[in-house]
């Protein structure tokens, strides 16, 4: 373990308790700056959506900002922002989160706001229609009106996986969104937004005993409800290569994404860490294997990146997930040539292994990035919360630097051995329109 | 439903924000150094800002093209190390140097582990004094830059930003937001070596270090590592920017677009102008945050758009008030109408005390949040000090924000937010939106993406 790894492990002790209604609470005090971050993670994400309701988890995230029992529309935002705080929410594959970062003196206000919408969000016809329109504009700006919109996160899972949970469009089809009803939203809330299906995580400038009292005061009265079982998302490993082509009329140049199944991020954590470092070794910076090969030596790529987890965070996702290598390349370079070079570099690692000094450098950089994330009270708090909901152990977030520093060259080599070209999912994006 | 305030927990007493101590010094070469010791995570943030404006409007196209290649090519090698070796030397200390240009400056930025200060500065010094710009590698880099610019120019937001800048600034360097790919393709190693020699200079440049540091020891390390970086001349700032205030709407045609990108822009007070605090608060109330009039109107009431926003943006030679909204094609006219309507209300009617208080607390709170991390503080200080302001400006500005009145906000809005003073650009499907927009103002249609 390096010094910085040790510091990160030790500096942020975590306190936890559970309310009678089942709400799990994690407190991570750090009184160095007068700021608190308050986050509520619900254990429901895009992969829980029923057929015919694609995009519903994300649409519901919008509904949680439309007011609640004691807070009119727009007032949630005003009460946070007028206290000097910021807020947002986001929908992931396996969870949906809501969070605020505020001056420490606004802690109780944030608890009141989160408890009020955990008890009773304002699910009205008018609010639902309005937010369906807003979500459609979000999809237009991020997907439909933009070259490479949502490439490859919306299309690659469709060829890499088989189950509805893993293959459907998490942004949702316009047909499904438009046909959503108030009853759907009420049912979704009732089923998935139970206090027992949530984690409340607070970090920063807080007194543990006082904060526990405030949490009991505001969240204690929220009625307990039944908690749904976790949906199965794991799938059998692929046995064949799968390929697909998408056409993008807005894109001026082609792109390629290769996805490989990786070990279970929770059940096979140590093997998974080898894969996480492999992705870094492949693509982070000018010293990385694929940057050197594709961009500088062969000059067959404009840009490349590799990452684990669809949204690039390897520690916020359950099985099944992918290591994705994404390459933007000039039109004159055939996709096959890019693909062959990627597979060759992976095979080289699988066969020759990784020099210790190369891995140490990659680990140093990973450590610096984890520290950088932990430097922000909000970033640290979200990391603890995600670790609690996905891994059942908030402490893991504080241990990541040390755990990654302990990964051996053999683990990385083994991870490369699992990136089999014969079971990869390959998505080619063809530029069919060009600039306009 | 109205809000029952008796239910809302009151805010406690604010705890004072820790005030950063910035230790300043200047090297014999003219390089200014700002060191801010910060407890917390064991990291250092480094920002080296070199003023890098085009010297004249005529020269801006070429300068921008060369600068866009130089920012990648400076890392391609030195006499002692090739590109991979440089990246490896940095990576071992957790660092990865990002080099970028904008119309005002060239910026070297990285995070590093504390033990790496001297070795990372040594690599930086090697790049500053001995980057070789090898001809073959430069060719590869410039081809990639040209490809990337081609991709960027297919993004509607990029097209809109370029069109607004061109319309506001005419032949000033700020009119060019992305270099012409043709000029980029003509850049070679010789041009970059000359540009580096004449423009990457310590005099006028600023190095900011924030983090796990002892200021005087850090200053010694910097002097030791960067002492050889000298050069004749002084960094260049852009000439004052005009604001042409073109009348009517310029419509950039993007046939088949499912959304329209509305962009409005006009002048705003600079960082030292006493009107700035009032304009910043007027901007917040108008469209600067979620609790603003624009968001409430065109997002939360009408569902026209996902993230409408306004901002005050500072460049060295001129500051801007900007409004942006990406809206569904079929509501483009109504969305611009509402956007202008809210500007008119700002310019002609007073805001409420509650709106002003909310905006003020938000601005002060978000400044505190953004400077609470090493990285946020380093970037903020680099911009401020680079603009010729002392690090203490931050505290003075906070005090000035605290004293702004409703009347001052109205005066500022009348002067800077009135739609008559803003230049308008819309990118979208001209066949479908030219008619509705024409009902609001004269429309001139321009084809395709700016090159």
TrEMBL record, chain A:
InterPro entries: Metalloenz_LuxS/M16, MPP/UQCRC_Complex, Pept_M16_N, Peptidase_M16_C. GO terms for molecular function: metal ion binding. This is Putative Zn-dependent peptidase. It comes from Blastococcus colisei. It comes from the Bacteria. It holds the Pfam family Peptidase_M16_C. Residues 181-364 form the Peptidase M16 C-terminal domain. Belongs to the peptidase M16 family. Residues 24-141 form the Peptidase M16 N-terminal domain.
From TrEMBL, chain B:
InterPro entries: Metalloenz_LuxS/M16, MPP/UQCRC_Complex, Pept_M16_N, Peptidase_M16_C. GO terms for molecular function: metal ion binding. Residues 191-361 form the Peptidase M16 C-terminal domain. Residues 74-181 form the Peptidase M16 N-terminal domain. It comes from the Bacteria. It holds the Pfam family Peptidase_M16. Residues 1-23 are annotated as: Disordered. This is Putative Zn-dependent peptidase. It comes from Blastococcus colisei.
């Amino acid at each position: 373990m390096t010094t910085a790894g040790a510091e990160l492990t030790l500096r942020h002790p975590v306190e936890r308790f559970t309310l009678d209604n089942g709400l799990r609470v994690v407190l991570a005090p750090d009184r160095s700056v007068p700021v608190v971050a308050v986050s509520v993670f619900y254990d429901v994400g895009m992969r829980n959506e029923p057929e015919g309701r694609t995009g519903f988890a994300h649409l519901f995230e919008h509904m949680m900002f439309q007011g609640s029992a004691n807070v009119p529309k727009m007032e949630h935002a005003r009460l946070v922002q007028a206290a000097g705080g910021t807020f947002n929410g986001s929908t992931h594959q396996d969870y949906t989160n809501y969070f605020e970062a505020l001056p420490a003196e606004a802690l109780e206000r944030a608890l009141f706001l989160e408890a009020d919408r955990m008890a009773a969000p304002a699910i009205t016809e008018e609010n639902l229609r309005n937010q369906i329109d807003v979500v459609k504009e979000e999809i237009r700006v991020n997907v439909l009106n933009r070259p490479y919109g949502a490439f490859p996160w919306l299309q690659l899972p469709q060829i890499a996986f088989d189950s509805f949970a893993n293959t459907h469009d998490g942004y949702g089809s316009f047909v499904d969104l438009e046909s959503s009803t108030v009853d759907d939203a009420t049912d979704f809330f009732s089923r998935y937004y139970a206090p027992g299906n949530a984690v409340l995580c607070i970090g920063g400038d807080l007194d543990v005993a006082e904060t526990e009292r405030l949490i009991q005061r505001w969240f204690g009265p929220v009625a307990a409800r039944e908690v749904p079982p976790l949906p199965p998302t794991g799938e059998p490993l692929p046995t064949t290569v799968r390929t697909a082509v998408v056409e993008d009329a807005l894109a001026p140049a082609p792109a390629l994404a290769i996805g490989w199944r990786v070990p279970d991020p929770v059940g096979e954590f140590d093997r998974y860490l080898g894969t996480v470092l492999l992705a870094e070794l492949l693509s982070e910076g000018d010293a990385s294997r694929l940057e050197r090969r594709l961009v500088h030596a062969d000059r067959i790529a404009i840009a490349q990146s590799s990452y684990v987890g669809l949204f690039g965070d390897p520690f916020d996702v359950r099985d099944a997930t992918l290591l994705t290598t994404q390459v933007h390349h000039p039109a004159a370079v055939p996709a096959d040539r890019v693909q062959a070079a990627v597979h060759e570099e992976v095979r080289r690692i699988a066969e020759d292994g990784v020099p210790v000094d190369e891995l140490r450098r990659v680990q140093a950089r990973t450590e610096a990035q984890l520290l950088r994330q932990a430097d922000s009270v909000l970033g640290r708090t979200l990391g603890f919360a995600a670790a609690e909901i996905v891994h059942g152990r908030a402490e893991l977030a504080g241990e990541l630097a040390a755990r990654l520093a302990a990964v051996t060259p053999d683990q990385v080599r083994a991870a490369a051995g699992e990136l089999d070209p014969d079971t990869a999912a390959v998505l080619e994006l063809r530029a069919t329109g060009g600039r306009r | 439903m109205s809000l029952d305030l008796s239910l809302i927990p009151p805010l406690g007493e604010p705890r004072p924000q820790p005030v950063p101590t910035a230790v300043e010094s200047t090297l014999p070469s003219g390089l200014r150094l700002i060191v801010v010791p910060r407890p917390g995570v064991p990291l250092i943030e480094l920002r080296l800002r070199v003023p890098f404006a085009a010297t004249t409007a005529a020269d801006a196209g070429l300068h921008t093209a060369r600068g866009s290649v130089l920012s990648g090519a400076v890392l391609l090698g030195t006499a002692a190390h090739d590109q991979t070796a440089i990246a490896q030397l940095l990576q071992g200390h957790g660092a990865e140097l990002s080099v970028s240009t904008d119309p005002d400056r060239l910026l070297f930025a990285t995070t590093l582990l504390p033990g790496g200060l001297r070795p990372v500065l040594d690599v930086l010094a090697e790049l500053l004094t001995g980057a070789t710009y090898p001809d073959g590698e430069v060719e590869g880099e410039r081809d990639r830059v040209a490809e990337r610019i081609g991709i960027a120019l297919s993004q509607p937001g990029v097209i809109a930003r370029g069109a607004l800048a061109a319309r506001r600034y005419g032949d000033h360097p700020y009119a060019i937001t992305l270099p012409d790919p043709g000029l980029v393709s003509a850049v070679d190693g010789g041009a970059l070596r000359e540009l580096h020699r004449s423009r990457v200079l310590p005099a006028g440049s600023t190095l900011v270090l924030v983090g796990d540091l002892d200021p005087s020891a850090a200053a010694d390390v910097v002097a030791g590592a960067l002492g050889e970086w000298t050069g004749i001349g002084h960094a260049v700032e852009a000439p004052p920017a005009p604001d042409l205030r073109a009348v009517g709407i310029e419509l950039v045609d993007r046939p088949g677009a499912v959304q329209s990108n509305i962009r409005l822009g006009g002048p705003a007070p600079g960082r030292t102008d006493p009107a700035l605090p009032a304009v910043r608060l007027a901007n917040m109330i108008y469209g600067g945050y979620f609790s603003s009039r624009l968001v409430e109107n065109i997002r939360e009431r009408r569902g026209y758009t996902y993230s409408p926003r306004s901002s005050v943006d500072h460049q060295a030679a001129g500051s801007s008030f900007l409004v942006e909204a990406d809206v569904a094609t079929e509501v483009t006219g109504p969305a611009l109408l509402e956007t202008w309507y809210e500007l008119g209300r700002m310019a002609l009617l007073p805001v409420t005390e509650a709106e002003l208080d909310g905006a003020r607390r938000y601005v002060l709170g978000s400044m505190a949040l953004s400077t609470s991390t090493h990285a946020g503080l380093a970037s903020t200080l680099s911009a401020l000090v680079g603009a010729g302001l002392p690090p203490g400006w931050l505290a003075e500005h906070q005090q000035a924000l605290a004293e702004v009145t409703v009347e001052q906000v109205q005066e500022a809005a009348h002067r800077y937010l009135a739609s008559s003073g803003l230049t308008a650009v819309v990118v979208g499907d001209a066949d479908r939106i030219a008619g509705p927009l024409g009902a609001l103002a004269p429309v001139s249609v321009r084809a395709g993406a700016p090159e």
